[in-house]
Specification:
disordered C terminus, mainly beta
């Protein structure tokens, strides 16, 4: 059985300031659930953790680079987070109505606990 999980929280662009009158609109995730696989060996051992990623969202909303900002402490979880993040899609960030490339933070939580308000986080 393959376990899947939700990306925890929201996406936080690193470029959210203003440059003069040029306000940057954040990239918007086009997902509710993300098919990031919880490594079965980690699931079976009840190992949980959170990996904080930095992703580059290009001007068409695809992730073209992923970096680990903060490790979960478990290489298998970190690898699964990076692999899954490459498949994320976004409405691109914009500056003055024009699509731009930005870096954004994406927290990925590997947890076997039920989420508040309903669904399970895998």
């Amino acid at each position: 059985m393959i376990r899947r999980l939700l990306v925890a929280g929201t996406v936080f662009p690193l470029l959210v300031g203003c440059t003069g009158d040029q306000q940057i609109e954040r990239p918007t995730p086009l997902f509710n659930e993300v098919p990031i696989e919880y490594p079965l060996s980690m699931w079976d051992q009840d190992i949980e953790g959170q990996t904080l990623l930095r992703v580059r969202v290009n001007d068409v909303g695809r992730v073209d680079d992923v970096e680990i900002m903060q490790s979960s402490g478990h290489p298998a979880l970190d690898t699964a987070a990076v692999r899954g993040a490459r498949s994320l899609r976004f409405e691109p960030a914009r500056r003055n109505g024009k699509r731009i490339e930005v870096w954004a933070q994406v927290p990925v939580e590997f947890s076997k606990q039920a989420q508040p308000g309903g669904g399970d986080r895998y």
